Amino acid sequence: MSWEIVIGLEVHTQLSTHTKIFSGASTTYGAEPNTQADAVSIALPGVLPVLNKGAVERAIKFGLAVGAHIAPRSVFARKNYFYPDLPKGYQISQFDLPVVGMGALTIQVEPLSGNAKPYEKVVRITRAHLEEDAGKSVHGASQGMTGVDLNRAGTPLLEIVSEPDMCSAAEAVAYAKALHTLVRWIGISDGNMQEGSFRCDVNVSVRKPGEPLGTRREIKNLNSFKYMQQAIDYEVQWQIDTIENGGKIHQATILFNPDTGETRAMRSKEDAHDYRYFPDPDLLPLDISEEWKESLRATLPELPEARRVRYVNELGLSAYDASNLTSSREMADYFDTCVNTVGVHAPSPQSSPASGRGGERENQSSILAKLCANWLTGELSAQLNRDGLDMAQCPVTAQQMSGMLARIVDNTLSNSGAKEVFRTLWAEGGEADAIIESKGLKQVSDSGAIEALADEIIAANADKVAEYRSGKDKLFGFFVGLAMKASKGKANPAQLNDVLKQKLAG
Amino acid sequence: MFNSSLTQLGAALRAKQISSVELTQLYLDRIATHNPVYNAYITVDAKTSLAQAAAADAQLAGGQAQALTGIPIAQKDIFCARGWRTTCGSKMLADFIAPYDAHVIEQFNRAGAVNLGKTNMDEFAMGSSNETSYFGPVRNPWNQNAVPGGSSGGAASAVAARLCAAATGTDTGGSIRQPAALCGISGIKPTYGTVSRYGMIAFASSLDQAGPMARSAEDCALMLNVMTGFDERDSTSLQRDKEDYTRDLNKPLDGLRIGLPKEFFAEGLSADVGSRVAEALAEYRKLGAVIVDISLPNTRLAVPVYYVLAPAEASSNLSRYDGVRYGYRAPDYTDLADMYEKSRAQGFGEEVKRRIMIGTYVLSHGYYDAYYLQAQKIRRLIAQDFTDAFEQCDVIMGPTSPSTAFNLGEKGDDPVQMYLSDIYTIAVNLAGLPGMSIPCGFGDNTMPVGLQIIGNYFDEARMLNVAHQYQLATDWHSRAPL
């Protein structure tokens, strides 16, 4: 009998405020150790926390984005434990009254195994709460001693806790990616995983179908989706092997070692802390008015899920393309700009006033959208990958891109010509029309010229023509190649195909 | 000069009868003579104080003097003051030089007052006799074998012995009022949230409140004018308009309704203290007040509730003293846990450790509901008792402490006896109300007795009026021990 996998995630996302959650110290990453540690950050005697309103606003926005209940009153609590990078000896967090209650996130899962189909799933979000980050212990900082860097201490975090709704590494990764997209999309976090702005703790257990939940182990601090998948795969197999070999799973906190691909227990439940949570008397309860909440709701952009659905339903894109295009707000906005701009620059030549039925217009806008989607998820994404850039750093603006796409739509550019224009835009910038002009990339769509070209090729290759006509269909490509070459690549390929096919048929 | 009120001192300074430097030097000389006996100050820094006095003299010369400009004020060693050693009475912070000013210190600096020194106190304000200080006990100027009360024992002793013009204190369960009573001075703990706690080293955050300790209600009013005001750095600071606490001092007391809680006059109250309070009430009747019998039914629960909540908060507040970033670190240790354990074992005194353990216990898994949550519920009941009582009266009066000053070491072995010393004051902190103590005579052992005045929220001006009218009619507050 097979095993069922149960996974829940706790994600710590760093909120994009300029200052810390309880003090005015800067949150900029990468400063010299302790240069961003003010009196509150180092917990001098007598200092007090003052809540950063910007952090609260970001938490509320998140809650609204996942359709969650926003607590009209939530409470900050102290989580008490000793550690050198925890200057107060307690972390200010939220415990039984978090700011964000139950919500949900729809995810698109792409199974890792070969032929399974992509599918959609709703993952419930249990809660999300505000808390402060700890500092950093730097082991062996000097002469074998451990240094403490408190720059990060007090950085605002939103801890997002899911229900154990995921049952594969693929689902867990899809959820983490969707969450990662969302927090960046609504502008509450930069989501920078290398800098620790988005860290995942993954709770994993296994059970036989129908049995109660198994004992879970928590993989801490995963900051890459690849590692997350590897860690879960390893951990699941380890748990199954352990049980099948007659062992028992004990609740534990574990770490994933990317070098070995293995997980390793950090501490067991027996040495779990008693955090002695209690309401922080230095902070008043956090009251959120209906007006405040609604004013923030008004600032939310169209959310990725809504836009994904719109792309499929209104633009006729495939689920796959729609998912890819909504993987970041920059990509989706770029796409929207292209679709809108190309539509204006290249009104479809075939459209006639008489055939202005809705269906046809939709069909045309769908063709346009598909063209834009293909270029963005294809050529543009590949080029970004090659250069190690993300969408925000793309050297070709959506306007420039649209200028080129419009020339594909109006048949000025062939596919190969378009690629050359794109390469030039990427490397040198400029305008598509000017590049087409200076490089002579305008494709030949004059039917007389193309027919003459076809006649020429047929006349010069009588033997091959005979072979083709006697059933050697594969030779068609040979004729197309010759004709293309003769036109210096400028012949409209679709037109050339049609003409050649017709003439070769005799 | 040493018996002058703040108003008189201010007038003398403005009239150039004396300079701030001269006045400060007189006090410094007096401290040099008497402090070795009373041990009221932990730190005196003549150079810094005199520099401040010189700056005050410049302000006075320039005609920019405010009420307290140039007047030497003693600061409880719980307030961080930039450049000053700030110990909180603990070995843990014995060498800690504060790099910033508490809000209270800033307020006095802005007012042009002179910081005369940092006064002794129970360690981290935990104590009722000033015997828990790492810097040794403070002596009561009325009897050197007696305690001054605590935790603001140094401040009370300094004011009574005329080692400062006035002083600051803090009050978590009675730490201003009880030492004021035991040393025969006046002190007021304002409504919670009135004085910013920024820079005031935390004991129990939801109870801690700073206030003045002085020789009269009028002086307290002038001090309070300086200390109060909204501070955005303290989230529990109340956003209210600045008040002049002297405004009602001279109002007559006709028709004033004084509530007398029967629970304050039950078992445990010394007969002599009870008599002095009764005499004070008789005086108030003469001044036109009427006495109303009231009940605060949950009074007996105040001490047990307090000794759950205050240690709970303290156990967390004191976690930052771990030897990592500042403060005491044990000289020898084997690893991190050992460093924590030894630094805290050696850096904290017995009473502090006792309360950290109590607090840790009541917050622990499995005990939290039974202790901490239950105590929070009772805390609300206690506050409700007062709300109900103030329907019937304008102020509440009773003894500040069940007895006069006891002798050093007398209650050392019995923490519960020591805790009961604050039985009448603690409920006021739990409710967040303002409370005051003024001298109202002497007990059988010739030690001062304090009358406690409890007001409704934000009713400090009325309480000061009530105290001031009594002090116009009596002279207990102007008796000096020397």
Kindly report the name of the CATH homologous superfamily of the domain at 6-254 and 435-443 and 460-478 in chain B. Answer: Amidase signature (AS) domain
Oligomer: heterodimer
CATH topology of the domain at 6-254 and 435-443 and 460-478 in chain B: Amidase signature (AS) enzymes
Roughly what percent helix of chain A?
25-40%
Count of discrete alpha- or pi-helical segments spanning 4 or more residues of chain A? 15
| Structural domains of chain A: how many | 3
Q: What is Rg of chain B?
A: 21 Å
Secondary-structure element series of chain B: HHEHEHEHEHEEHEHEHHHHEHHEEH
Strand order of the largest sheet of chain B: 1-3-2-4-6-5-10-11-9-7-8
Global geometry of chain B = globular
Which overall shape of chain A is indicated by the principal axes computed on the Cα atoms? Answer: elongated
Strand segment tally of chain B: 11
Account of the protein in words:
With 506 residues, chain A is of the alpha+beta class. Helices cover 40% and strands 19% of the residues of chain A. Chain B has a domain at 6-254 and 435-443 and 460-478: Amidase signature (AS) enzymes (Alpha-Beta Complex), CATH 3.90.1300.10. The mean pLDDT of chain B is 97. Chain A binds chain B through residues 39, 42-51, 78, 80, 82, 84, 87-90, 148, 274, 276-278, 281-284, and chain B through 79-80, 86, 88, 93, 96, 98-100, 102, 197-202, 204-206, 232-236, 312-313, 315-316, 318-320, 322, 324-326, 336, 340, 360, 363-365, 368, 372.
Task: Give keywords.
heterodimer, A: 506 residues, alpha+beta, Arc Repressor Mutant, subunit A, 3 domains, eight-stranded mixed sheet, three-stranded antiparallel sheet, 15 helices, elongated, B: 482 residues, alpha/beta, Amidase signature (AS) enzymes, eleven-stranded mixed sheet, 11 strands, 38% helix
